[in-house]
Write a structure and sequence with these properties.
The protein is an alpha+beta fold and 157 residues long. Helices cover 39% and strands 20% of the residues. The chain is built from five helices and eight strands. The strands form three sheets. A three-stranded antiparallel beta sheet has the order 2-1-3, with no helix packed on it. A three-stranded antiparallel beta sheet has the order 6-8-7, covered by helices on one side. The chain has a two-stranded antiparallel ribbon with strand order 4-5. The longest helix has 18 residues. It is globular.
């Protein structure tokens, strides 16, 4: 079990059900924010917006997006480490890479062989970012993720 939060500023969490996940992923609000972000990025790429202005707008938009706490469920509905119950999920999130699909196919897939079970519906390759959500065994405690992360050449995750 993992939790959902309305946005990154919210402290109250709720257990994420399949229905919540589906509604959030397909929400008009999320779609509109992502479209606006993509438009700003295109403006920056065309030289119509500075990188600093883009970074500011991107940060503002991302704060409005809902979020999933894939790593844990919080027993009292508050995002506090002391109340976190590990979900058994782990996520790799690599940003600022020129070719996410190539990076994912050449490095991530190979590095993660034998590390948990990939949750295919949540593999995401976007503009400048690659994500991989997978299960983690209780006795692994993230060590497999750390080793795979090092194999991809990314120490931070």
């Amino acid at each position: 079990m993992f939790d959902y939060i309305q946005n990154i500023r919210a402290q109250h969490t709720v257990p994420c059900t399949a229905d919540i996940l589906d509604v959030v992923i397909h929400s008009t609000i999320v779609n509109n924010i992502c479209a606006e972000l993509a438009d700003y990025r295109e403006q920056m790429m065309r030289g119509e917006m500075s990188r600093d202005d883009f970074a500011t707008k991107k940060a503002e938009l991302k704060r409005r997006l809902p979020a999933f706490c894939f790593h844990a469920h919080f027993k009292n509905g508050r995002r506090l480490n002391a109340e976190a119950i590990p979900s058994g999920l782990s996520i790799l999130d690599i940003d600022h890479i020129p070719s996410p699909e190539t990076f994912y196919n050449e490095k991530v897939k190979r590095a993660y062989e034998g590390v948990g079970h990939r949750i295919g519906a949540h593999d995401a390759i976007g503009r400048g970012t690659a994500h991989r959500l997978h299960t983690s065994t209780e006795d692994d405690s993230g060590r497999g993720t750390a080793v795979a992360c090092r194999k991809t050449g990314t120490e931070r995750f």
